């Protein structure tokens, strides 16, 4: 937001169309230029949030902005980093899954998650009039592309990635475009459903030990605990690569163990992880209060 040179920067509550509406209403009533379309509003969201794995209510956000800004001066920028390769037709993201791509000003895709690579300069691979990115693809109109090439300092002053990364990203995109990953996407959704079902067996534990009631359709799961390092370490000792996420990455009180599933996981691995957590919970229960 700082780098955007926006005249005014306002936050709204996480993933809340009501909060967006309240913020927009306040700003519009204070600024006639917003009302008559002479000033722009850029609304920036992630499609899949990186920590809780929840999916943004993009259609509801669009409805709010289009209703309150009928001069079409509300522009959405959607970061699809965690949706790329996982959601939408051939992994094209949540925006395309919803079929609202024509109503989104910018979609940004990165390559470090499902594509198992890094960023890249990918002009030729953009689906529409896309822009290059050093760390991302930016799907946008040609004016925005020209603007970013000339004004985006982080783009101008960053060296492009080397050929091996570009080659690996291209290979991943060829697999996506060729439909070869559709089966993997399907397999991942089965694993997500299975893990969610298995996690239900843990929900009897009180929130002071483990909170597992917030599930999404994404492969990112957040197991809230007051002792996430301890839980993560127990899982790691059993061979599961999961991480404790602590403040300031998440707000204090929202510490968790983050579990990210991938297509290569098996149901047996999920069973094993659940059993490891269950065993830890039983041992934790027997210990005196030490939270
Ligand atoms: C929301 C979001 N956008 C972008 C990125 C950067 O993605 P990448 O690592 O693929 O370049 C991240 C990385 O975690 C992220 O969480």
UniProtKB/TrEMBL annotation:
InterPro entries xref list: Aminotrans_II_pyridoxalP_BS (IPR001917), Aminotransferase_I/II_large (IPR004839), AON_synthase_class-II (IPR050087), PyrdxlP-dep_Trfase (IPR015424), PyrdxlP-dep_Trfase_major (IPR015421), PyrdxlP-dep_Trfase_small (IPR015422)
Gene3D superfamilies, per database record: Aspartate Aminotransferase, domain 1, Type I PLP-dependent aspartate aminotransferase-like (Major domain)
Record GO terms (molecular function): transferase activity
Keyword Transferase attributed: yes
Record-annotated Aminotransferase class I/classII large domain positions: 18-277
Superkingdom of the source species: Eukaryota
Cofactors demanded by this protein: pyridoxal 5'-phosphate
SUPFAM superfamilies per record: PLP-dependent transferases
A Pfam entry, by short name: Aminotran_1_2
Keywords annotated in UniProt: Pyridoxal phosphate, Transferase
Family (UniProt): Belongs to the class-II pyridoxal-phosphate-dependent aminotransferase family. BioF subfamily.
Protein name: Pyridoxal phosphate-dependent transferase
């Amino acid at each position: 937001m700082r780098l955007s040179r926006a005249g005014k920067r306002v936050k709204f509550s996480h993933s809340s169309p009501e909060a967006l509406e309240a913020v927009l209403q306040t700003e519009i009533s204070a600024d006639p230029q917003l009302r008559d379309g002479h000033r722009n509003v850029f609304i920036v969201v992630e499609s899949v949030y990186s920590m809780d794995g929840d999916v943004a209510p993009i259609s509801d956000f669009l409805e709010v902005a289009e209703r309150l800004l009928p001069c079409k001066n509300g522009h959405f920028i959607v970061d699809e980093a965690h949706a790329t390769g996982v959601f939408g037709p051939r992994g094209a993201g949540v925006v395309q899954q919803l079929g609202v791509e024509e109503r989104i000003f910018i979609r940004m895709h990165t390559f470090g998650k499902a594509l198992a690579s890094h960023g890249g300069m990918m002009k030729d691979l953009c689906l529409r009039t896309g822009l290059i990115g050093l760390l991302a693809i930016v799907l946008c109109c040609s004016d925005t592309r020209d603007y970013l090439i000339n004004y985006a300092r982080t783009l101008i002053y960053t060296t492009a990635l080397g050929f091996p990364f570009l080659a690996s990203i291209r290979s991943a995109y060829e697999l996506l475009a060729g439909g070869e990953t559709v089966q993997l996407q399907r397999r991942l959704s089965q694993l997500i459903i299975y893990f969610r079902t298995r996690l239900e067996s843990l929900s009897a534990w009180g929130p002071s030990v483990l909170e597992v009631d917030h599930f999404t359709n994404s492969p990112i799961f957040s197991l809230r605990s007051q002792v996430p390092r301890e839980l993560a370490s127990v899982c790691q000792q059993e061979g599961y690569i999961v991480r404790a996420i602590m403040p300031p990455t998440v707000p204090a009180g929202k510490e968790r163990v983050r579990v990210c599933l991938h297509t290569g996981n098996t149901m047996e691995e999920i069973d094993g992880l659940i059993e490891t957590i269950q065993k830890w919970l039983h041992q934790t229960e027997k210990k005196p209060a030490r939270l």
